[in-house]
Amino acid sequence: MRLPTLAAMVLAPLALAGAAPAPAETPTAPGLRTAVYAGGCFWSVEHELEALPGVADVVVGYAGGTRANPTYQNHAGHLEAVRATYDPKKISYAQLTEGFFRRIDPTDDRGQFCDQGPSYRTAVFTASPEEKAAAEQVKARVARLLGRPVATEIRPASRFWMGEAYHQDFAEKNPARYNAYKVGCRREAALRAVWAGR
Q1: How far apart are alpha carbons 196 and 198 in whole angstroms?
Q2: Residue 118: which of 158, 76, 151, 159 has the closest Cα?
Q3: Residue 36 near residue 157 (C-beta atoms within 8 A)
Q4: Which of 122, 117, 93, 95 is CA-nearest to residue 107?
Q5: Active-site residue 41, yes or no?
């Protein structure tokens, strides 16, 4: 992530690991599906979506841009994104999308919390007319619930590029660094303010 000072300090000890290759793409098991979301800091979205029942795996990367082979250091035009693999028998696409919205501030059109800038804007990438319709319905419901316009875009699916290995499962592998980032960004307090009582 192109981060402000706080998160840059969190990442500094990992700079030497930056050349590590991203994990190989793995085919989806029979019966499972994938969904791609951009929600600001991809560490946070990965960590929080993994906790949803029916989600089998979440990986971080880049989506929405035209540059081939984007990297952390060079992903202009792309959004930081996650690809969630889920079991539609346990969680529907609409439920997963609503779970995503509940873990971001969908009213912020400039980024998320302390991560501001083009690569931190939010989006739902839809791969079919059915997904687009479901995502639009969830977005409209969220706008009514919050009583404010929703900035999160519904975009057609584009290629998802895997992020570097050191970004995958960052919160799990680096809990102290991730918590320092999350607390410093006041992420939980900001989410409570957006969604309080809703």
Answers
A1: 6
A2: 76
A3: yes
A4: 122
A5: yes
Give the amino acid at 173: K
The pLDDT of residue 26 is 52
Residue type, 119: S
Give dist(CA 159, CA 68) in Å, integer.
9
Question: Quick one: DSSP state of residue 29?
Answer: P
Query: Which tokens belong to 141?
Result: 């419901």
Q: Give mean pLDDT in consecutive 10-residue pieces for the chain, a chain of 198 residues.
A: 47 46 58 97 97 97 96 96 98 98 97 95 98 98 97 97 97 95 92 90
The one catalytic residue in 3, 35, 36, 41 is 41
Contacts of 88 (CB under 8 A, 6+ apart): 31, 32, 33, 54
